[in-house]
Amino acid sequence: MAHDPELETGKRLDAFVDAAFAFAVTLLIIAGAEPTTSLDALWRALGRIPASLGAFALIAMFWLAYREYGRLVPRRDGLSTLNALAIVFTVLVYVFPLRILLETGFHWVSRGWLPGAEIIRSAGDLHDLFRIYGVGFAVLAGLFAALYARARNHADRLEVPVERRADIRAGHEIWLIAAASGLLSAGLTLGPFAKVPWLPGFAYWLIPAAIGVRARLIARQPVDGTSPA
């Protein structure tokens, strides 16, 4: 079998992305760590476990999304490689607002039982945090949308199998929904919407709702011999 430099580059790139996501999880844990030199410090560390678990789940979601892309798209070209590197950089930055937002959220949900009271001191702080997180989430989701768009528009060049192209289209549209939700969340911290502190967080619950609406619309499309997705 002849050696294929592009396929070899793709494998190395995917391995690098896997390692970068593992490092992002390490940063996530370090960001919330403190020396456990007393029982009180140990209890505070244990109290941060729910926020760490939630943040880990979101990082894992993005990692699994990239793994799914690798399953669907055999080849990488220059732009898709650059896109993947941009995803890595954004993830490594994204872990910090992610950690802070979730720790604040768990503190609020637990009515102060879990740590996080020292993070948010005013409504302005909360709005700033939602803006930073929303823009970061939108950028990261937008990069995934661009990755899928590249595969969708250059399916032959990237050797995407015909039976997987419907999945590529679906992935592109779903990541566009996610990116729009992040921008919406950031926008809801401005103007009259800023008076409702929980509204920016609600924007992310629209993602599964919008995906469900998309699925229903696709299901209603007439079958013409090709996949409706």
Quick take:
With 229 residues, this protein is mainly α. It has helices at 5-31, 39-47, 49-72, 78-109, 123-153, 165-187, 199-202, 206-220.
Q: Helix count, per DSSP?
A: 8
Structural class based on helices, strands and sheet pairing = mainly alpha
Span between termini:
35 Å
Major sheet, described briefly? none
Description:
The protein is mainly α and 229 residues long. The chain has one domain. It is 72% helix and 0% strand. The chain has eight helices and no strands. The protein has helices at 5-31, 39-47, 49-72, 78-109, 123-153, 165-187, 199-202, 206-220. Helix 4 (78-109) runs antiparallel to helix 5 (123-153). The two termini are 35 Å apart. The model has no long low-confidence stretch (mean pLDDT 84).
